[in-house]
C-alpha cells in the first residue's frame, strides 16, 4: 500500500489571489514563513497543501485486483469459510485508510490558533532579518533596534504599529541601508507603508512584497536595485504610490501591475522609462537619467 496526499480542497489558494496557491508555496521556505498567515475556505496553506504538511493522506493499494480475482476462482471450496479467513485479513486492510487520513487531516487545523501567537514573533524576526540584510550596524540611526528590552512597536526607530501590535509602517529612508531586501518582508500582512528610498539597496525586488496586500505606499526610489519588476506586485490591490525610479531596474512593467491602475482608476506609478518599458497608460510619470 502507498500513502497518497491530495490538497484539500484540490484548488486551494489565498482568498482573492488565485496565483498564491499550493504550487506557489512549494518554492523556497514559503510554507515556513507564510504557511499559517492567510486562510481560505477554512484552511491555511499548512492545512490545505501537501507541500506544507497539510492536505489529506489516503492509503491506496497499487494492486487492488490481485486478491479479488484469484481468491474466488482458485479456492471455490473455501466459500464456506468466509467468516475466518476474510475476517483476519480484511480488518487490517480496511483499518489503515480510516486511521491515517481522517485523523491526520483533522489534527492540523489546530495550527489556526497559532497566528495570534506567532505573528508578533514572526514580525520581530522579519525586522531582525531586514536589519542584518541591510547592514543595520552602519545605519545612520538604528535607535533601539535589536534591543530586547524595548518592543519594536514602542521604540525601534522607523517602525509603527496599530493597536494590535501589527507593524503598519516601516520608514527607513535616507538611513544608509546597504545590501539586499530580505524575502521576510512579505510577513507584514498589515503593512500600509514601506519607505526605503534614498539608500544603497542592491539586488532584486523580492517577489514576496506582493503578499503585502494592505500596502498603500511602496517607496524604493533612489537605490541601486537591479533586475525586473516582479509580477507579484500586481497583488497590491490597495496601492496608492509605487515609486521605483532612480534605480537600475530593467525589462517591462508587468501587465499585472498596470492592471492595478485600471481597477482603481488612480494611483501613482513611477519608474525610469529609459530602462523599464512602461507606457503612459500605465505609468503616471517617467524619469529619464534621474530626472522627471
What does this molecule look like?
- By secondary structure, the protein is an alpha/beta fold.
- 25% of the residues lie in helices and 21% in strands.
- It has 8 helices and 19 strands.
- The strands form 7 sheets. It has a 7-stranded mixed beta sheet with strand order 7-8-10-12-14-17-19, with no helix packed on it. The chain has a two-stranded antiparallel ribbon with strand order 1-6.
- It is globular.
- The termini are far apart.
Q: Could you say which overall geometry the principal axes of the C-alpha atoms support?
A: globular
Ends: how far apart?
A: 66 Å
How many strand elements?
A: 19
Kindly name the structural category.
alpha/beta
User: Percent of residues in beta strands?
Assistant: 15-25%
What are the secondary-structure elements, in order, as H or E? EEEHHEEHEHHHHEEEEEEEEEEHEEE
Largest sheet: 7 strands, mixed
Topology:
Layout: E1 2-6, E2 13-14, E3 17-21, H1 22-25, H2 30-34, E4 39-40, E5 43-44, H3 45-48, E6 56-60, H4 66-74, H5 85-99, H6 101-106, H7 115-133, E7 159-161, E8 167-171, E9 178-180, E10 193-195, E11 200-202, E12 217-219, E13 226-227, E14 241-243, E15 248-249, E16 251-252, H8 255-264, E17 268-272, E18 276-277, E19 285-287
Parallel strand pairs: 8-10, 9-11, 10-12, 12-14, 13-15, 14-17, 16-18, 17-19
Antiparallel strand pairs: 1-6, 2-3, 4-5, 7-8
